[in-house]
Amino acid sequence: MIITLEHYFLWFLFYSFVGWVYESILVSCQQHRLVNRGFLNGPLCPIYGTGATLAIAVLGNVHNPVIIFLVSMVGATILEYSTSWVMEQLFHARWWDYSNFRFNLQGRVCLLGALVFGLGGVGVVLGSQPYVEWATDMIPLPMLHTLVTVLAALVIVDLAVTVAGMLGFEQVLDSVAQAVQDVAARAGGTWQWGADAVSDKMRELSQDTLERLRWVISGVVNAQQKRMLKSFPKFQMPGRQDIIDSLRELMGPRK
């Protein structure tokens, strides 16, 4: 039983890593820069690992690709919707938004994503998983126990650091807003929020003032929060979206 759980944990990590590679390549191409596309700091997208291991557990003995596709499509959609809702309740923010896709549900899931996940389920259950199982079965038991213990500790620490870094982000944004307003006032002007307004304002301010603004932001917004803003273009926080858009503009490449 313990060995089975350890194998499932390694499978979870493997598919989380595959999901991270897929997401990072996709978003890096869209953003024209390297992006660590994951909620965690490490190279993992846990939602992919969770979906894959659930598909293996539920559909491992099913060989009909149509059934695997349909069950994976529905299951992954429920998982993605639930994950979006839970993260919004915990952090009062949304990491992705499919509102611009047809046939979406509250922007949390969409038909295209469901179809992709359905195909992914078929690929995992009938394609990659037999080879992944063969590889994990080859690991000697002492090495397996050590490997799982070390990797589990790293994931737990990463999760703790990530969650701690994102809690209270609303208050951080309020502090940034006040600090930026103060800097702008000392420079003899007022500050208007929003990406377009900030872009115009940045052309008006002196280089010294811009550097002062960036220095203030770097002292208030932690590394975890900066990475989230850069890695998730659809990251939203109701009531503070103009501040977030402005931060992205200010933290962008020097012009």
Features:
single chain, 255 residues, two-stranded antiparallel ribbon, 2% strand, mainly alpha, 10 helices
Count up the helices: 10
In helices, the fraction of residues equals over 70%
Characterize the main sheet. 2 strands, antiparallel
Q: Which class best fits the helix and strand makeup?
A: mainly alpha
**Roughly how many Å apart are the termini?**
58 Å
Widest β-sheet, arrangement of strands: 1-2
Shape: elongated
Average pLDDT taken over every residue:
86
Describe it for me?
With 255 residues, the chain is an all-alpha fold. The protein contains ten helices and two strands. Strands 1-2 form a two-stranded antiparallel ribbon. The longest helix has 30 residues, at 2-31. It is elongated, with a radius of gyration of 22 Å. The mean pLDDT is 86.
Short description:
Helix content is 73%, strand content 2%. It has 255 residues and is mainly α.
Compile the SSE list and pairings:
Layout: H1 2-31, H2 46-59, H3 65-91, E1 104-105, E2 109-110, H4 111-137, H5 141-166, H6 169-186, H7 195-204, H8 207-220, H9 223-231, H10 241-250
Antiparallel strand pairs: 1-2
